[in-house]
Amino acid sequence: MKSFLDKLCSYTELIGGVLFGLMAAVVFIQVIIRYLLDYSLAWTGELATFLFVWVTMLGAAIATHRISHISVTALNNAVSEKKALILSMIAQILMLIVSVIICATGFSFAVKNINNISVALHVPFVIPMLSLFIGALLMVVFGLGVIWRLQVVRKGDNS
Fold first, then answer.
1. pTM for the whole thing?
2. Mean of the per-residue pLDDT values for the chain?
C-alpha cells in the first residue's frame, strides 16, 4: 500500500511532467515560429522561464523523496553501514535546514511580488515566486519522511 508521501510524490511527478511537457511545447513553438516566420513571440521566453523554475523545484522535491540528490558516496563507502546511515541522517538534516530557509525566503519573495505583474504574460509574479515556496515546502515534507525512514532503519539495526 502506498503511503501518503508516496501518493504526494506521484501527484508531484504528474504535475511536474505536465509542466515539463508544456515547457517543451512552448520552446518548440518559439523555435519553429522564429525559424519559419522570422518572428519572435514575446511571451514564450517568459513562460518557459516560469515553467522551468516550477519544474526544477518540483524535481528537487521528488529527488528528496527518492533520496536521489547528487552526493559524494566515497565517505559512505569507506565507513561501516551503521556510520553510513548516520552520515545519511546528518546530510538529510542539513538539507532539511536549507529547505526550510528556501521555503521561508520563497514565501517572502511571493508576498513581496504579490502586486507585481510580469511584462510579457501580464500575470502576477506571485505565480513563479510560489514555486520556491511550494517546492521547498514539499522538500521539507519529503525530507521529514526520509529522516523518519532512516530512523526506522536505524532502530531496526539496533534490535
1. 0.90
2. 92
Q: What is the pLDDT at residue 53?
A: 97
3-class DSSP assignment, residue 41: coil
Cell numbers that stand for 106 in this block: 520563497
Length of the chain: 159
Sign of the Cα pseudo-torsion (11, 16, 19, 25, in order): negative
d(CA 65, CA 56): 14
* Per-residue confidence (pLDDT) for residue 157, from 0 to 100: 61
Q: What is the sign of the dihedral through the CA atoms of 31, 33, 37 and 38?
A: negative
**Angle (nearest 5°) at CA 62 between 133 and 1:** 120
Q: What are phi and psi of 65, to 5 degrees?
A: -60, -40
* Amino acid sitting at position 106: G
Neighbouring-strand partners of residue 124: 117
Task: Let me know if 154 is exposed, middle or buried by CB neighbors in 10 A (0-12, 13-18, 19+).
Answer: middle
Proportion of the chain above pLDDT 70, given as a percent: 96
**Residue carrying C-alpha cell 526506522:** 152
Query: How far apart are alpha carbons 39 and 63 in whole angstroms?
Result: 38
